[in-house]
Write a structure and sequence with these properties.
Elements: E1 2-4, E2 7-10, E3 13-15, H1 31-45, H2 50-66, H3 77-85, H4 96-110, H5 115-137, H6 150-164
Antiparallel strand pairs: 1-2, 2-3
Length: about 170
């Protein structure tokens, strides 16, 4: 698959903006949503720490049973301070690519031999789950800009973890 400007190549089929006859053609591919979420799926298929699976199960079970979160999970100031210590923004101000980078770092840190780093990584994934619950409970209303869709990466990561590791 090659993405360039107005040309999309899939297998032997080439489509441009002149072949719009009842075909769904992506002419302006958004790097931050499409490829970013594909990277999230790949991250979920590789080795996943048990703490990530536990946080994902907690989030996804409630979502599957009730289809949404009604209780807002509040994040404390000490938890935000932990995020700041590792130069992480709140989930509302995170792009998909940045969220994927954070997931990758958290996975590495969870397998680290440094106990403090491993403990902090486990806390951060729980904080991200709380933030995601808060965003979904508020019906995505507190997202300031369309550019910040990091919550979609975390949500996709949690869904894919529970899908592949039942």
């Amino acid at each position: 698959m090659v993405f360039s400007g107005l040309l999309l190549t899939w297998g032997n089929t080439k489509m441009d903006d002149t072949t719009l006859n009842n075909k769904h053609v992506v002419t302006n591919f958004d790097e931050d949503t499409g490829a970013g979420l594909l990277r999230t799926v790949v991250l979920a298929k590789s080795a996943v720490p048990y703490s990530h699976k536990r946080a994902a199960d907690n989030f996804v079970v409630i979502k599957r049973v009730y289809n949404f979160h009604t209780v807002r999970a509040t994040v404390t100031l000490s938890e935000y301070d932990l995020l700041k210590r590792y130069d992480m923004e709140p989930l509302e101000c995170t792009t998909i690519n940045k969220a994927n980078d954070e997931i990758e770092f958290l996975k590495k840190w969870s397998f680290s031999e440094n106990n403090e780093l491993r403990h902090d990584a486990d806390k951060i994934i729980v904080i991200r789950a709380k933030e995601l619950k808060n965003i979904t409970a508020s019906a995505y209303s507190n997202i300031p800009n369309e550019m910040y869709k990091g919550y979609k990466a975390i949500e996709k990561y949690f869904e894919e973890i529970t899908k592949f590791y039942k």
